[in-house]
Amino acid sequence: MIVRCEKAGVDMRLSAEATPEDIRSLHPDAVILATGSTPLLLPIPGLPECGYATAQELLAGKRAAGRRVLVAGGGMIGCEAAEYLAERGHEVSVVEMKPAAAEDVAPEIRRYMFETFRRHDVRLHTGCRITRFYEDGVECKGTDGSILSLRGYDTVVLAMGTRSSDPLSEAVSPFVPQVFVVGEARKSPGNAVAATADALDAALEI
Ligand SMILES: Cc1cc2nc3c(=O)[nH]c(=O)nc-3n(C[C@H](O)[C@H](O)[C@H](O)COP(=O)(O)OP(=O)(O)OC[C@H]3O[C@@H](n4cnc5c(N)ncnc54)[C@H](O)[C@@H]3O)c2cc1C
Collapsing DSSP states into helix, strand and coil, what is residue 168? Predict the structure, then answer.
């Protein structure tokens, strides 16, 4: 895709955060905003102070994890983080509120993911709703009302969903004739296929 953009003469500016002023200075006829999403921070006691790393920070290499890791949230992102860590020798537990983990992962990928979990002894605590965060773990409530304390971890990794991040559309709408918000900036959680389809629809409307 990068090569095709370059061949088509797309002006790519990397390591550059687009601000409303930058966009104004380019005098565009249309803007497609594809600014993605940010991790969801639910109002659960202890979360702000517990020193968590987000799964995205971890997978991007911006944060490191200790030996024993608790992953809070067992959807696609949490399970991918768990798989990544387990394969690198970390001892990993995952806590998920739903009855099953990785429900949003395609079956053909999920199968191999669970094989990795078995091989590396990743512990899955499903049907557990986190009610409190600590620096070294969480407390959660089972579907039968039982309380489970999972403590003694070196790192808590947060993967409890995402929310759309669209900091630009309101600011640029007054001076750009056509503004499109696409991908996870429009609807999160999403996926790469939906984001790409959104982008194509926007491009065809310009
Ligand atoms: C761990 C993980 C695994 C995933 N696995 C899959 C999978 O297997 N299959 C699948 O379909 N989807 C998967 N997804 C979801 C998929 O990655 C997203 O749905 C998709 O990338 C959304 O595309 P987007 O363009 O909307 O946002 P993003 O891909 O998040 O891109 C947004 C970009 O905008 C940049 N940006 C933000 N603000 C500014 C600004 N002001 N100026 C300039 N740049 C800015 C960001 O740096 C970022 O690069 C996964 C997501 C994660 C986190």
Answer: coil
Domains and CATH numbers, the chain: 2-37+166-205 (no CATH), 41-160 (3.50.50.60)
Residue among 13, 35, 198, 200 to mutate when testing ligand 1 (max atoms within 8 A of CB): 35
Residue nearest to atom 28 of ligand 1 (CA): 36
- Is the minimum distance from the CB of 199 to ligand 1 under 6 angstroms? no
Ligand 1 atom closest to residue 183's alpha carbon, by position in its atom list: 26
Q: How far is CA 58 from the centre of its chain?
A: 11
pLDDT digits (tens, 9 = 90+) for 101-113: 999 999 999 999 9
Closest atom of ligand 1 to CA, residue 77: 1
Residue 205 CB: number of other CB atoms within 10 A?
10
Tens of pLDDT, residues 88-142:
999 999 999 999 999 999 999 999 999 999 999 999 999 999 999 999 999 999 9
* Residue 80 near residue 104, CB atoms below 8 Å: no
Residue 1 Cα to ligand 1 midpoint, Å, equals: 15
* Integer CA distances (angstroms), 38 to 82, 96, 140, 188, in order: 19, 20, 24, 9
Q: Is the CB of 108 under 6 A from ligand 1?
A: no
Q: How far apart are CA 122 and CA 116, in angstroms?
A: 8
